[in-house]
Please model this.
Amino acid sequence: MRGSDRLILERYRCVCFTEAPLAALADGLVNRWDYGRYAPFGLIFDKRWLYARGARPVIYQPLAEAQDLPPSHRWRHMTYEPNADNPVDFTWEREWRLHADELRFDSSCASIIVPDAEWEARMLADHE
Model:
């Protein structure tokens, strides 16, 4: 997986994750065709595995407080301004980040998410 600096303070490159519960996937991100900015495919990692590699939860806070973080932690900042004229609230994503250009992994570390049984059968047939 490649890191990105999109929406990350000071353009730190990070690989980003959501800590969405599995139940939320079945009820929204995976089984409906209105995905917003998310595709109905993904990867599941054990949080302990990510943590051991340096991934951490973002720190939701006002942009004005971002500079209060030491430079070594600013990659974790995510703007949270729920009462602003243009509210910013991504807390529902429960985001984690790994400060890295990329994350290398294999099938022992991740599982694949597909939208339904038809896609599961298709993926198995194409890749077994």
Remarks:
- Residues 30-35 have pLDDT under 50 and may be disordered.
- Strands lie at 14-18, 42-45, 56-57, 59-61, 77-79, 95-99, 110-113.
- The radius of gyration is 16 Å.
- The CA atoms of residues 20 and 47 lie 11 Å apart.
